[in-house]
Specification:
single chain, alpha+beta, Aminopeptidase, Nonspecific Lipid-transfer Protein, Chain A, 3 domains, seven-stranded mixed sheet, 19 strands, globular, binds coenzyme A
């Protein structure tokens, strides 16, 4: 195999997308292929060729993603796939290496993020599992709230047409986004291509996209997007299923009301809420929290492309001044000792000559970057070596963040 990796031209889109569809065992209708093409940044889309044959590809979407302290530019890695005929021959390795080197050499984003189709793929490329999510399966008849659940008489629920509600939904989403690490800005094109589409393919056997909005006289304060599969069991008992796609609210009362609207859906026996944040307030609101039937999944994976720029770009929850020795085979410019100083809302990171206080692989730093996966736990797993007493506690406390990271929707 003679492998070359290069960006693709717009005219090569059809060939490129065929490779990805084959890799993902999918066959999307032309409309979906077009939606995908519209979001594609061709100068950030690379393909691997075996001679003339396209055998793999990977894309970057230019995101503004919240990290502790606020939004920064982040490279959103997506649409990664290799033809089944060429798997396990180093094509993905070539694509990942090229992406990271391009980002570094072009002074692109200091941080890359992705969702993994399988959790075992990206650790070897220096990505760390930076966010987790919870998937809930809530029986509607056991979904009562605690008596302290907040209410606001000014609020009412409205059934809305999702496609016509974009401005209101975006207003709510954008009010939450800057504080929650992992959430990324959605352009209007992104809302229309990724969040609001409602073809048979998007429905995947469920009903149409539905929307509930909680609002007062000033406008929307919360919303839920969901689908329902209507049904009755063999005893003609209604056993419809709600699939919650996303739910955001600006304040506790709106949040509780939107959830109530979803859980009280008539003729439905269960609500499936996939990929909720691990600190979702619903875990406090439900009178019987065991009825959440929560399952953990990995959410965002983070790769520090340039350790110094990435560490200087986020905020820290506590002061820190230490030298970190980073191990990074794939991106050797990151390897070695870095001094991190964080105090009074300012952070600085640069080369350090002093003896290292801690040694860790770059993936462990990536996992801690969004503040949701404590370094202390990674150290307990044997992934961090502490050379100065207290250094682990210092860095772990500084990198922790509240609220927990969460990307919400897979990109
Ligand atoms: C996952 C995929 C991209 C891997 O591509 P590939 O070209 O076979 O990967 P490489 O040959 O470069 O493998 C590099 C290493 O990763 C390992 N690896 C590859 N895929 C893996 C997986 N799914 N799980 C665990 N390890 C994996 C390989 O075994 C290899 O390990 P080694 O270096 O110890 O030998 C390819 O199998 C694919 O397209 N899968 C279906 C689509 C998909 O899941 N894409 C990822 C989207 S997030």
């Amino acid at each position: 195999m003679s492998l070359t990796v290069r960006t693709i031209a717009e005219s090569e889109w059809s060939t490129y997308s065929d490779v990805l569809y084959e890799a993902f065992n999918s066959s999307y209708p032309p409309e979906l292929r077009e939606r995908w093409r519209e979001l594609t940044e061709f100068d950030r889309t690379i393909a691997a060729f075996d001679g003339d044959l396209a055998v793999g590809g990977a894309q970057i979407l230019s995101f503004s993603m919240t990290v502790p302290g606020g939004p920064i530019p982040v490279a959103g890695v997506t649409s990664v796939g290799v033809l089944p005929s060429h798997r396990r021959r180093g094509v993905l390795t070539a694509l990942m290496t090229r992406q990271l080197h391009d980002l570094h050499e072009g002074r692109g984003e200091a941080v890359a993020a992705l969702y993994a189709s399988e959790a075992g793929i990206y650790g070897r490329f220096g990505y760390g599992r930076a966010a987790d999510a919870l998937s809930f399966r809530i029986p509607t008849h056991r979904s009562a709230f605690t008596r302290s659940a907040p209410t606001d008489p000014a609020l009412r629920l409205r059934v809305a047409d999702p496609a016509k509600s974009l401005a209101g939904l975006a207003r709510v989403y954008d009010s939450v986004r800057p504080a929650r690490p992992g959430l990324y800005a959605r352009s209007e094109a992104y809302w229309r291509a990724e969040i609001l589409p409602d073809t048979e393919h998007d429905r995947g056997g469920m009903g149409p996209l539905r929307c509930l909005i909680a609002e007062d006289a000033a406008g929307p304060r919360g919303y839920a997007l969901f689908r329902v599969r209507a049904g009755w069991d063999e005893h003609v008992v209604p056993d419809g299923e709600v699939r919650l796609l996303e739910l955001f609210a600006c304040d506790p009362a709106a949040y509780a009301l939107v959830w109530r609207g979803v859980l009280d859906r008539d003729l439905c026996a269960v609500v499936h809420a996939g990929r909720r944040p691990v600190d979702d307030p619903i875990t406090h609101l439900l009178a019987e929290p065991r009825q959440l039937n929560a399952v953990w999944v990995d959410d965002l994976w983070i790769r520090l492309v340039d350790v110094d720029r990435a560490l200087a770009a986020r905020a820290y929850a506590a002061p820190a001044d230490l030298v970190i020795e980073v191990e990074d085979e794939l991106c050797p410019w990151n390897a070695g000792r870095w001094r991190l100083k964080a105090a009074g809302g300012q952070a600085w990171c640069g080369r350090g000559d002093a003896p290292a206080d801690l040694t860790l692989p770059v993936g462990v730093l990536g996992a801690a970057y969004l503040g949701g996966r404590p370094l202390r736990a990674a150290a307990d797993a044997g992934l961090v070596r502490e050379h100065r007493d207290g250094a682990l506690r210092e860095l772990s406390a500084a990198m922790a963040w509240d609220p927990a990271p969460w990307g919400c929707r897979v990109f």
